[in-house]
Amino acid sequence: MSEEIDRLWALQDLDEQALAVREVLARFPEQRRELQHRIVEARQRLEQARARGVESQKQRRELEREAGALVDQERRFQQQLPAIKKNEEYTALLHEIEGARRKRSEIETRVLERMEEEEREQHERPALEQALKSAEAEAAARAKLIDAEETSEQGKLGVLEARRDAHVRELAPVTRARYERVHASRDGRAVVGILKGACGGCYRTLPPAVLQEARRRDRMMSCEGCGRIIVWPPVET
Ligand SMILES: [Zn+2]
């Protein structure tokens, strides 16, 4: 029977290794999403900057049209001036001219502000484009590494599974059935070692009689707490 206990112990080790590999494999999708997320963010920043530029240009052209209309108005008023005879009408028109001029000046200031902003954004644009390119290049390079790592881990898992299957086939039918059942219900951890007098799976303290029996390593035993197969670890040699 001790041979079977040894086999179970070997299975414990293989299953732990397989679990570790599966944990590594489970991280890859998140890593891929993270890379894609960085690209999406960089692209959004660039597109937002472009959209701001387009919007600013649109606003500036509108302001330029307004300023142009005020120039025309001012000119028309100027042309009317010589024909005016009454003093107060003359003063009123001068006032209108002054008003149109002030308004035009304000608008021209806003046009300049827009132009400065557009220029600033044009300066920033190459950096944003570069950031997107870098994110894409980095994602492509990292994706290759992730793919390679994933293939390697899948290979490891395949080897572990094959070794596991070989051991499982050698188990006595009863032991094998028990192992497979617990393996399926306990997330791949069917066999655990006894550590400091407790089950290595659920940490429940085991009765002295159970410990004594387990130490003999001549019978398959289960933890009453979690149902896992408990094995007294082999003595280190
Ligand atoms: Zn347990």
Describe this structure as you would to a colleague.
The structure is a single chain. The chain is mostly helical. The chain has 2 domains: 24-170, Orthogonal Bundle (Helix Hairpins), CATH 1.10.287.1490; 176-231, no CATH class. Helices cover 78% and strands 5% of the residues. It has 4 helices and 4 strands. It has helices spanning 2-80, 87-170, 173-185, 208-216, and strands spanning 191-195, 198-199, 221-222, 229-231. A 4-stranded mixed β-sheet has the order 2-1-4-3. Helix 1 packs antiparallel against helix 2. 14% of the residues are buried. The chain binds zinc ion.
What labels would you give this structure?
237 residues, Helix Hairpins, four-stranded mixed β-sheet, 4 strands, rod-shaped, binds zinc ion
